Prior knowledge:
This protein is α+β, with helices and mostly antiparallel strands. The protein has 16 helices and 18 strands. It has helices spanning 2-11, 20-26, 47-60, 114-123, 140-145, 187-192, 209-212, 247-258, 270-277, 283-291, 308-324, 340-347, 376-389, 423-442, 453-460, 463-476; strands spanning 16-17, 40-42, 64-67, 86-89, 96-100, 105-108, 126-128, 163-170, 175-177, 220-231, 235-243, 265-269, 295-303, 334-335, 338-339, 363-371, 397-404, 409-418. Helix 1 packs antiparallel against helix 3 (47-60) and helix 13 (376-389) runs antiparallel to helix 14.
Amino acid sequence: xxxxxxxxxxxxxxxxxxxxxxxxxxxxxxxxxxxxxxxxxxxxxxxxxxxxxxxxxxxxxxxxxxxxxxxxxxxxxxxxxxxxxxxxxxxxxxxxxxxxxxxxxxxxxxxxxxxxxxxxxxxxxxxxxxxxxxxxxxxxxxxxxxxxxxxxxxxxxxxxxxxxxxxxxxxxxxxxxxxxxxxxxxxxxxxxxxxxxxxxxxxxxxxxxxxxxxxxxxxxxxxxxxxxxxxxxxxxxxxxxxxxxxxxxxxxxxxxxxxxxxxxxxxxxxxxxxxxxxxxxxxxxxxxxxxxxxxxxxxxxxxxxxxxxxxxxxxxxxxxxxxxxxxxxxxxxxxxxxxxxxxxxxxxxxxxxxxxxxxxxxxxxxxxxxxxxxxxxxxxxxxxxxxxxxxxxxxxxxxxxxxxxxxxxxxxxxxxxxxxxxxxxxxxxxxxxxxxxxxxxxxxxxxxxxxxxxxxxxxxxxxxxxxxxxxxxxxxxxxxxxxxxxxxx
Length: 489
């Protein structure tokens, strides 16, 4: 057991795990990825431990799989893609390194969850532009690295936001800092002269962070990240708009985002909105879904420190003027039994347990991609046609539409709920995921962060990007120790 002894030397005996029952838990997730049991799980406490583990892996030829969030995992990216893997569980790295109210930024290690960061930000009158209802065990750094869409497109300036700078241990063992954190000097020395690690680009003319973001741990292991934060509003006025069809909503969404009036702005279908808000299952879920219109737009207007009432008042008037020019668009405070204020309170926090995607039937598979708002109705039709072919009820498909990057594009996500103990349902959803991904890509959907079978489809269609990424992999991870078998590696 020389491997175990070497790992114990690096991280300590209590932080090297080879219990067969625990290894079995790490060998699989909710996705359809083939289970592969790792040899060990190691839990480093700092960047020095991570770097030592990576250097050891290169010398020993042992593959590593980084993981920062707790279970349940959904997308197969943390399931070993090769035998003999050591999983690097970063959940012990929980330092909130810095919260800077003046510069509206925070810096955290990968084990910090949204629930742990939010109280620290609130003390500085800050908040994070957060994804919709992350699970309670979700790592903030992990979410940003996966480019999960955030709910306030008004503050989404780049697809990488809110992530700014990172410290990464590349697969070759080198430590590297990006953007404004690159130096000169240590972080403490930069802070002393007013540095805030708020510039993402660099060092030099390259956007190095883009090599790491979306890489699913195939290039290196991030040991901390800085992020842009936003001011807490003084007052907030949320609204709902129900509609029988998407086409009547997307022009209003366009103006909401273009004029930068709304903070939160997203669209859910009745299936997803009921899954988020229902408390009693399945009776309340089914009655709520039936009572809601097929599509619901949620948006929130906000006032800040100076003249908040006046600010919100003119925003409400501007929105009412735009709505009056559009057929069937009527902003309201309540739809059926759903209150806009209640939904706002829900969306400000991580999901309550059980995680909202697991409440209906116990499991969920996602199909997600980027597109433009006007293309979404076409993709909904493609998804429904494919679901009907697989005998999956279209009424049970959840849909989440999130404008991104100031409305330049939008995240479109289909959520397929199923019973994981029903072999027929499992097979049906597995086939649907494959065929729907093929059909959506064929119709023009851009799978910007593909997982599992979708990664094979996406990279197979783009030989030049695949070749470029393999060259970068050869530079930063020449021995292929970082999460082999994922993406195009």
